[in-house]
Amino acid sequence: MEWNADTLQFLSQCFLNTLSPAPEPRRAAESQLSEASNRVNYGLVVLRLVAEPSVDEQIRHAAAVNFKNHLRFRWAPVRDSTLTAIADQEKDQIKALIVSLMLRSSARVQSQLSEALSVIGKHDFPKQWPALLPELVVTLQQASQSADYASINGILGTVNSIFKKFRYEYKTNDLLLDLKYCLDNFAAPLLEIFLKTAAIIDSQVSSGGSAVSLRPLFESQRLCCRIFYSLNFQDLPEFFEDHMNEWMGEFRKYLTKNYPALETSGDGLALVDEVRAAVCENISLYMEKNEEEFKGYLNEFALAVWTLLGNVSQSPSRDKLAVMAIKFLTTVSTSVHHTLFAGEGVIPQICQSIVIPNVRLREDDEELFEMNYVEFIRRDMEGSDVDTRRRIACELLKGIATNYKEQVMKMVSEQVQSLLSSFAANPIANWKDKDCAIYLVVSLATKKAGGNSVSTEIVDVKSFFASVILPELQSQDANGFPMLKAGALKFFTMFRSHISKPVALQLVSDVVRFLGAESNVVHSYAANCIEKLLLVKDEGGRARYTSADITPILPVLINNLFNALKFPESEENQYVMKCIMRVLGAADISGEVAVFCINGLTFILNAVCSNPKNPIFNHYLFESVAMLVKRACERDISLISSFEEKLFPSIQAILANDVTEFLPYAFQLLAQLVELNRPPLSQSYMQIFVLLLSPDSWKRTSNVPALVRLLQAFLQKAPHELTQEGRLTKVLGIFEMLVLSSSTDDQGFYVLNTVIENLEYGGIAPFVHHIWSTLFGRLQRHRTIKFIKSLLIFMSLFIVKHGSGNLVDTMNAVQPNIFLVILEQFWIPNLKLITGTIELKLTAVASTKLICESPALLDAAGARHWGKMLDSIVTLLSRPEDDRVEDEPEMPDIGDNIGYTATFVRLYNAGKKEEDPLKDIKDPKEFLVASLGRLSAISPGRYPQIISENLEPANQAALMELCRTYNCPII
Fold this sequence. Notes:
With about 950 residues, this protein is an all-alpha fold. The protein contains 50 helices and 2 strands.
């Protein structure tokens, strides 16, 4: 693409049309630009359009956005075959133009070009763009001389973006070399512009400078602070250590001085707070990583931060500053300089002036509770509130308690009692004091290692529960003071293991009543409380609450749970649905309850099919259906037909409308229903079987595990139908397709193993030659440990089902003597890698049968193979898994996953039951020595010599020990 008047006109019109509110010209323009973007020099031409002063600002901005996105997808090596990479010559020209263009552009365009420059820098800087940083330094110094802060901030913003990698990437030699290059070139200019800007700010403040003039200066200081953070993140650079006085002197000034002209205008206070927050983050970094070098400044910063926090209002706009400041004090509290908190009255003062004000509920907390319950719960219950004032204030207390535990616990306990006394004096006016007390106790609780149990030393849990929590839970007004109800339910949930079973059972009916609370948070917490109670285990791993405990309240509980899903905005409440799943798993499901539940679940399923929004809710929905099918139908088989009547329309709708998110779930539910049926399967199922055997059904990789699960169910339930109408040929075609790809080869073996397990040898005999040819071809082209282990398991299953003679003969029919090649190169060296109880037993027994029954191993020529095979069997049976298996995950074939757009999610409650093909053999070790004993009795004296020549000494000793244990000598 050439830069000329026609190109300028064409692109200008296209970018103008992309801004059109009418869809037709907008789509046409987007299509034209997409097509043009594959032409050589497209990016360079768009950049020149951005630079053209005669073009309307709106068009230039749209072009700058397009240019940034063009670089984002094409600057680095392109993976998408439909996109053309930018040529090196064009890249060089873009690099030569972009810095100067960015600096002379308007603010809107400048921000887009700065991002584009960062895209280039992320990939090319510094090695492939050594001219960038020197150019930025020169232009920064030029802009500094003329006090052009639009340009200065543009440069600093760009530098900030490209230096961010030093915060997040792993420390490597390459990273440290890049960091050294940046420090050598930019550390001094950074300090120079930081100090110069600081001097201008001081001058402006003393002469009554306006907010307009101060704003760009503070933005410059904010960017300098963020660059400081990046350059100091890995280690303390020598330059910064040498100039620590200058940096820290200015940092302290921003924490201690006020700037009324700026702070009282518009968003000026927010900008000053951003600088202060960045300073707090910088000094926290020095406390964490450079404590020794920083200690001389610590006292003055601790006092400055403490004083600052006392003046920071509760306004949400000041949250970031408050959080960063408290984080700094928390870092100090856990350091060797914690003695700053040892002074008399310090800890109570921190509690009074910092902790309690920041833990108390604010208006925005109440608003979030009412208007966005999902976000409130995410912060409050799921622990994502780590950067909120409430949580960070409690983290400060925990930090101080690291060294002053008794003082903190005593002081907090007194505060809790004071808050509760205030509430008792006037419950209506002071309900927030009670909320604050509950939050303190819950937040300062500690989780015991290795379990879900929590403890607290602030209060006696049982007495606090009885006096503070119980009245809220037993309140008959489910809608009164909802935040207190939520806090009480959260406390009950957290300390559920401490509450005795009789007390908890008395309260469950109250919790069930809260499922009807109008507050989304309250009925969500009630559902979560019930769900977590059902998970409580007593000693020995026994569930504390059984079906007998649930039965008396089951009808009301189930009814309230489904009604909770009718509240506005709770139609897809994941906590309620998870509780339904848990209740169905724990309760005895009567026919009446089962019908009620399947009606309710299918109604919800049909509703979400049209617009799947919440994947977590949807997962628990399908788990609930699977759990209901499993528990109800296994107990009363007559329910299957009514369940099918309800579920089939929903499943058919998912299949017909290609609801991508739900297809794997639908296939797993179908597999569950097929397994519950008694042969012969109905016509409805056989129609699905026909659909399942179509190659089109297997095109989406994300559906494969679920389709295999369904196919296995059909193969088990309809083996006779499998041999009719060419179905077995189609099944083996699916096996071949799956086994040839390393991303699905294990799924191919699941299909093949199920065929071998469920058909007589006569049914599969005509296809065995083709099966071996497919497997040997894959083994030759691309072998992985996963494939070899799957092959060993398949060969073992073949032996136990159809005999070692058939195995050896059919393999050798494909290629003469290939059996011994496979045995020597793959079976013997890899048998030790088998894991899983059933798999280990299967392969050990099959390998034993092979050495005791196969003529190829029993004659004189096979003695060495016989001995080495026995050595592997003994290794498998006598050594722990950790000694046998090296934990080396294989690198997946990236090519196999191209086009993979969705993730398969297994339904736990619709899982396939593991079948043991060797139920009659209880102990593979006993089977081995008994088989060897019988074999050696036929040829006395032969096998001890083979054993001594081929088994490792440790395995010889292990084998002798097994013989003694089972009293089966090898003679």
